[in-house]
User: Fold this.
Amino acid sequence: MSFQIPIGPQHPALKEPISLRMTVEGEVITGVDIRLGYNHRGLEKLAEDRNWIQNIYLTERICGICSHSHATCYVQGVERLMELAPPRRGLYIRYLIAELERIHSHLLWLGVAGHEAGFDSFFMYTWRDREVVMDLLEMISGNRVHYAINTIGGVRRDLDAGQIAKIQEGIVTLRKRSEYYFYIGANEPSFVARIAGVGYLSKENAVALCAVGPVARASGVARDVRKDDPWAVYDEVDFEVATADSCDVLGRVVVRVKELLESYKICEQLLKSLPAGDIAVKAPRKAKPGEVVSRYEAPRGENIHYIKANGTDKPERLKVRAPTLANYPATVEMLRKGFIADIPLIFAAIDPCICCAERTVTLIAAGSGEESVVRMSDLRRRAIARHQNAPVKRNAVWPL
Amino acid sequence: MPDIEIVENLKRDLGEKALELSNPGVRRIFLGVAPRDLLPAVTLLRDKYDCAYLATISGLDKGDSFELLYHFASPAVNINLRTEIPKSAPSIASICAVIPGAVLYERELQDMFGILVEGLPDPRPLVLPDDWPAGNYPLRKDWKFERPQEVIPGGKS
Amino acid sequence: MLNKLARWSRIKSPWILHLNSGACNACDIEIIAALTPRFDVERFGILLRATPRHADVIIASGPVTRQMRDRIIRIYDQVPDPKFVIAVGACAMSGCVYRGAYNSLGGIDQVIPVNIYVPGCPARPDAIIDGVVKLLGKL
Assistant:
């Protein structure tokens, strides 16, 4: 007897509106339908009326958690259109902030994953540690989120010796605390057992459905724009692409934890070899006609901007594709054959940046068409209760 | 494999189907085909050039025609496939049979430009709201939006 | 007498509902950061609730998108009286950078009546706590 469950726009657990309608048979999901559009703000049309500098502020506000990644992807492209070569010091500062943003985003996500799995103290610990990164970002740029540090031709603020020392201290603290999280992962079998085997996405499906970011890397597809298409400083620092083979939520957690460690390494290298010099070059008002495709590895996956210029001071076309949109077909595939109780966890595991979506789950009875709205928090409570009573999976192993 | 070799291979494989082939920057190749050669070109890119990954599809309104850009990426290079369709008959074949992940991008093209994508497994609108008046395609250049005056509660309106 | 007791309990522990009407998420993570150990609103008795029917205060962010408009009105109707609305962030106040976009209505007060406006892009958690405390002072 199939049911259809709508998971609707206003959702208590996570922050953005998206609507999913799941067709279920008993507890197993057989079909998923995603309704987007609650967060569609008409950005691409707005971008055609603003000039190049104003668009930096517009692209920053596409997303709050990955704001620097959208702004950097845009500015990279425009600098190539205008044929500017920003100075090395400016580039190092820009990508240092990019790695700090990746650290803050992964810590945020670890907290959210802990919250969805029922581990609230983990949520409080990671968000307390995130405050260390937020303080560093505020010291550098003046704001905790939306640090408008990019400008066309470089960056706007410089780092002095005192700030560099503070950043290095902060990274040492964070590294010690992150190692405590690995200790938790290795020694908390109930946490690992909760997330192992959930949300399976095979490698062939990850390739066919064009998944990006940690979702693809946890299925063994080693796709990372920082290695495939390195822009500016990424071919001068030494780091590895983190992958995992378990294709489930445990793999995604492991990939993000490994990426945290790699980001600490990259930040230390950038700080150690920060070159002296200017931080920006002057940019012209108008750009010559042309087009550019700019790609960047945001914390959630690949960000791609396509910019076309027609010789004036406004872009002819700005096309933005954020990484979470690319992961939707893969999410539909992951949710199929899963349990209703796992919906919040699977959805949180793709790290949805739904400045883009709202989630409420609506269960629609496939047979009779009746609808019953189930809140995500109810689902989470049901999930936690169900797993407390289920036997612990003895063979789930923490691979780090 | 460096860009020059890939350009040579493409020229050899596509022959005169490639209306445009350029390499404007490092790891960026722009390739132009006619709409009827779209599916064979996409199949060739997926099978021989390791481009199973479609990043996105961009649409552009050029006045009396629409230009569609399919952005593919392989670990070595980015290949951007361009095709043009007239505004009077805006329709293009869907590539979902070859690349299943393209479905959301084609739905967005339908919403924003009014292009009819044939053979799409799920042709519903993607991002526009439920009460959007039909026939309004926001990203066309001739569509302008007049903002209604906002009401300031408790103040002068 | 019972009125005074009810008012005292409402001031001492308002329960809030978080509503995102299409925002970029920055204000939302600052609202959640207000719950974390650094800023800690739970010491004021403020709890984040799941459903509108349990809430006293709606904290809303985001420039309202057309799709969300009817849902916001429905949620506002579901919150029992007396209810208060706090609009957080520049988007919720007047639309921020999205003013003039075809799909955004330009602020929460175009749809539901608002009691407190907290400016910022995004508003800092300290400012959000300040806004909530000022609201409690008005009660």
